[in-house]
Amino acid sequence: MKQNLFKLLLPLSALFLTGLSGCGGNDAPEKGKIAVVISTLNNPWFVVLGESAKARAEELGYEAVVFDSQNNSSKETEHFDNIIASGFKAILFNPTDANGSIVNVRAAKEAGIPVFCMDREINARGLATCQILSDNFSGCVQLGQQFVKTTNRKGKYAELLGLVGDNNTWNRSKGFHTVVDNYPELEMVAQQSADFDRNKAMEVLESILQAHPDISAVFCGNDAMAMGAYQAVLAAGKTKQIAVFGFDGADDVIKAIKEGKIEATGMQSPIIMAKTAAELADRYLKGDRDFPKKVPIAVDMVTIDNVDQYLQN
Fold first, then answer.
1. pTM higher than 0.70, yes or no?
2. 15 vs 257, which has greater pLDDT?
3. Which of 21, 225, 262, 279 could bridge to 220 as Cys pair (CB 3.0-4.6 Å)?
């Protein structure tokens, strides 16, 4: 996408709040209810994912309700129990854990409720009706190529991983290492999880910098961690020495690339994923089952060379 996805956050927020407070009003459609279950609403990227799914489901004539799992598998299970008991027709689902979420998708399927995974997948075949995912691996192959170019194929670096139970964490890491591991003079001196969290990323990188003050780059599995990593680099006075890479296409990182603070990121399309999930759910409920079990969504790389295409007007 050639514009900033987060430009739609405020108007979509209004839709989200209206939906939570006004479900079942006079304009409630007859098609029934669709649940939108999001891993966490403590991250703007996932807010866009959830609100976009809700907005598109409502455009298609459904009543849509967003549930926040707060990155907690037990909370997610409570949501599914409620959804199943409340007669929802379909679930647009952003899992908290690739393995831990399997039981919830299985319960929904046994209750006759189709589940459409968005952005994250579950490690089970035949349970989710469809999984709509960014091409994380290929996106991070591109980032790996930029990483090699920026570091001139040598030097020490660190990697900040996301949630260890999320397949996106490992698909991004594997795509990155598919490229970078071919250069023996590039040495990874630290690889630690920061749970896709900005504050934790800052703390983790501060610790890494104490042990390895001579690193020249850090690859982060999402943009929230990239911003946290940059804060650690800034506090250490090493902004000229250490290049920071992210993944997502978050508004603050796009601006930071323009300002020369972040080297590059992978631009995902949460709005496209969300709309696709809602539209496939609508097709399924109308009796059309002719679509693939997995739908990949392309990722664009953003650098200083093309960042103007992604900035807000």
1. yes
2. 257
3. 225
